[in-house]
Amino acid sequence: MAPITVVEGRRLPISNLEKVLYPATGFTKGEVLHYYATVAEVLLPHLRDRAVSFLRYPDGPDGQVFFTKNVPPGTPDWVTTAEVPRVEGPSRMVLVQDLPSLMWAANLVAEFHTHQWLVDSPDEADRIVFDLDPGAPASIVQCCEVALWLRERLAADGIEAYAKTSGSKGLHLLAAVRGASSERVSEYAKELAVEAEKAMPRLALHRMTRNLRPGKVFVDWSQNAARKTTATPYTLRARPEPTVSAPVTWEEIEECGSPGRLDFHATDIAPRVQDYGDLLAPLLEPGSAGRLP
Question: pTM of the full predicted structure?
Answer without folding.
Answer: 0.95
